[in-house]
Amino acid sequence: MRERSGIVLDPHSAVGWLGLREVAAGRDDVTGIVLGTAHPAKFREEVEPVIGEPVALPARLAECLERPDRSVRIAADLNALRAVLGEAGPAS
């Protein structure tokens, strides 16, 4: 796709593009749309070696990557999830 359009896709969207291309190969009755799920810069470590050049990091994505992670480890339990979400109480 990059050779024809100059568009670089993220890995997940690239798989969608390849699937559409395979389904449509040699057929005139197929029209398709592939929606990009992320900016390729989010996956720079994977994308750059494939395309052989750096992927520019948009300012907004750079800002997001500078923020601290906000994850909370919880037990694999519905009540633990409810407690984190502020809906503590017995499971129904």
Give the SSE layout.
Layout: H1 2-5, H2 11-24, H3 44-51, H4 59-66, H5 78-85
Describe the structure.
With about 90 residues, this protein is mainly α. It has one domain (about 1-85). It is about 45% helix and about 0% strand. It is built from 5 helices and no strands. The model has no long low-confidence stretch (mean pLDDT about 90).
List key phrases describing it.
single chain, flat, 92 residues
Uncertain runs: none
- How many beta-strand runs? 0
Provide the structure class. Answer: mainly alpha
Distance between the termini: 50 Å
The gyration radius over C-alpha positions equals 20 Å
**What oligomeric state do the depicted chains represent?**
single chain
Strand content: under 5%
Global morphology: flat
The helix count comes to 5
In total, the number of domains comes to 1
Average pLDDT figure: 88
